[in-house]
Amino acid sequence: MAEAKPIASLEFEKPLAELEKRIDELRKLSGKQKLGAELEISALQKKLLAARKEVYGNLTPWQRIQIVRHPQRPYLLDYLRQGATELFELGGDRAFGEDRALIGGFATFDQQRVVFLGHQKGRDTKENLLRNFGCAHPEGYRKALRLMRLADRFRLPIITFIDTPGAFPGVASEERHVAEAIAVNIREMFNLHVPVIAIVIGEGGSGGALGIGVANRVLILENAYYSVISPEGCASILWKDRAFAPQATEALRISSRDLLDLGLVDEIIPEPMGGAHRDWNTTITTTMDRIRHHLTDLMKLPAARLIETRHARFRAIGTVLEN
After folding, report:
1. What backbone torsions phi and psi does residue 298 show, to the nearest 5 degrees?
2. CB burial readout 61-71, b (16+ within 10 A) else e
3. Tens digit of pLDDT for each residue in 144-163?
């Protein structure tokens, strides 16, 4: 499985990787030659723990972007395979074709049948081409709308998992009216009669995220981001250079803490030290627990109240306070 492979280090993690390497080398050498290096190993382990707390306790917004893009981070299907049962994927938009970047179907969470939707990325070149790097075409959003209407008809709650840099911006996508497809989804999601929970598990870029993001509760993993545009896209517009992406990340205020302070998300789901890719089991278990908590609350509300609170939630976004 992917989580069992050695974890690739990010640029800012290289000093930590060097310490880990020294500890491993000492252990191997001590085991072979019986050098009795336990004290030195213990000292290095303490140094490594302190260094980890220093690095991960003071992450910049751009470093969090790097973590959330780590190729070994758990994706939608990983969450479902571990945290749900009776998965049944449905395909096609009944108009053009199938989109493998945005998938959906039925699943069971603690004996509660739900409809799930979400972006799925790939882990290698072949799978990334199949999944289009998590960037959905219009047919993906029309498929999502078909499944949401199905959920509404049978009174099944909807759980959406957001993880995309944005909807696919290519010519074919524009020819098939991607903006219209996303706009229709946003409109229709406001009037669903069932609970809707959205979880940003990775990247939450632009309309590609919002096309399945109009929910009663919006949760976000600690290192994930939710933004009107990707940092690189913002840098290209404002500075005419994608190299200014770190500065754009700061200016956009797209980190989970900023989003919570601004009222754009309802809860931050903590990640293990170093990011979700370092401990899939803890990340997925914690995320599913929070979904169950919010689903239990929302299932108690009548349909009219669900629609009312969804409208009120989004109308409150962008409030300006004047002195």
Report:
1. -70, -30
2. bbbbbbbbebe
3. 999 999 999 999 999 999 99
Q: 189-211 as b/e, with b when 16 or more CB fall inside 10 Å?
A: beebebbbbbbbbbbbbbbbbbb
Q: Looking at this protein, which amino acid is placed at residue 249?
A: T
Residues forming a β-bridge with 136 = none
* Residues whose CB falls within 8 Å of the CB of residue 164, separated by 6 or more in sequence, listed in order: 101, 102, 119, 134, 135, 136, 202, 203, 204, 205, 208, 209
Q: Which residues pair with 297 in a beta bridge?
A: none
- In this structure, what are the phi and psi dihedrals at residue 108, rounded to the nearest 5 degrees? -120, 125
Query: Looking at the predicted structure, is the pLDDT value of residue 84 above 60?
Result: yes
pTM given for the model: 0.90
Q: How far apart are CA 106 and CA 223, in angstroms?
A: 28
> Residue 187 to residues 65, 144, 177, 211: CA-CA distances in angstroms?
30, 13, 16, 9
Tens of pLDDT, residues 4-63: 567 888 888 888 888 888 888 887 776 655 556 677 788 888 888 898 888 898 899 999
